[in-house]
Amino acid sequence: MNDLQNAKSVITSLYRTLDGAPKEEISRCLLAAATPGYRWRGFHPFNEITGAESVAECFWLPLRHSLTRLQRRQDVFFAGRNEIDGFESIWVASMGHLMGLFDAPWLGIPPTGKMAFLRYCEFNRVQDGKIAETAMYFDIPHLMMQAGLQPFPPQTAAHLVQPGPMTHDGLLHDPQDPAESQATLTLINAMISDLGQWQLGLPLEEELARTWADDMIWWGPAGIGSTYTIERYAKQHSAPFRDGFTERSGTGHLCRMAEGRYGGFFGWPNFVATPTGGFMGMPATGKPGEFRVIDIYRRAGDKLAENWIFIDLLHFWKQQGLDVLARMADVPRT
Fold first, then answer.
1. Alpha-carbon gap, residue 224 to 239, rounded angstroms
2. Which residues pair with 133 in a beta bridge?
3. Rounded to whole angstroms, how far apart are CA atoms 309 and 264?
4. What is the pTM (predicted TM-score) of this model?
5. For residue range 152-184, what is the model confidence (pLDDT) as tens digits?
6. What domains can be seen in the chain, in order of their start residue?
7. Hey, is 247 helix, strand or coil?
């Protein structure tokens, strides 16, 4: 097997043991798969954790206690070499939902006793057969809304449990054509170049049409929502987002890669911007805020057709002075 296939095997082996392990074995599973200096990044309130045992104690054990009978329902799986470090490191991406029975509180979110879906996407850096680094991003507000909470004002796009790719071909367990992988990465880079710092100068829908299919789908996080077609994406997210910020920094990624017709990236943070008022129905603060983001893309021909995006909105709004999780704990629910 080539290096990418070997890396995929490391991750699939971990998932097989981790997902089926009793809670008392979770730490052992992670220790066996990870390097001694394993570094884990997650959305607020977890942030950065060092060491497999700490990741098990801080994240996996509480989650497994709350979402019982947990299943990993994976929609996208691929590997690639990281363009950001000159294609030296190998990463494996996995995206889907962690589904379980919401039987006990998690982060103060009240249980429902019903099925619940935690949107997740993770990038794992594999080195010498071990996992050296993980970016595990997950949509906590989406879970809050399933529990009947409203962490944010009404969103501009649709709230729903999000499906995987329309083509049902996102699990790339087999080797892919390198030419297809390069075409996907080239298109993602063209989109990033067009995005820049929102200064291309074209009308928004014309700008988007350069790299996006007209019937594109943007699967956004809770608080913003999901939207379909360039026209509705521009109206329901892209334009309000751009109108609601100033002083957007350049884009910074820790990993950007592609395999076959799928690709993606993440940053820590991806960029910084200052809210001017209106975004997510919130007022201006004048405070620069970090956006920690994972984007996953599906390419169809020479255009981007679908985009799943994970944004750490809890972290962003905490920087603006609103601690959503703390407020949920402090304000009585009737």
1. 12
2. 39, 125
3. 10
4. 0.96
5. 999 999 999 999 999 999 999 999 999 999 999
6. 3-146 (3.10.450.50), 178-330 (3.10.450.50)
7. coil
Q: How far apart are the first and last CA of the chain?
A: 57
Give the containing element (helix H, strand E) for 190.
helix 178-195
Q: Which residues is 138 bridged to in the sheet? A: 120
pLDDT grade for 48, boundaries at 50, 70 and 90: very high
Compute the mean pLDDT over every residue in the chain, rounded to the nearest whole number.
95
Supply angle C-alpha 146, 161, 289, rounded to 5: 75
Helices and strands, number each (H, E), in the chain? 11, 15
Q: Residue 75 — very low, low, confident or very high, per pLDDT cuts 50/70/90?
A: very high
Tokens of 9: 């095997």
Q: Which tokens is 319 given?
A: 């920087």
Q: Which residues contact 71 (CB under 8 A, 6 or more apart)?
A: 19, 98, 99, 100
| Cβ-Cβ contacts under 8 Å for 192 (sequence gap 6 or more) | 251
User: How far is Cα 266 from Cα 292, in angstroms, rounded to an integer?
Assistant: 8
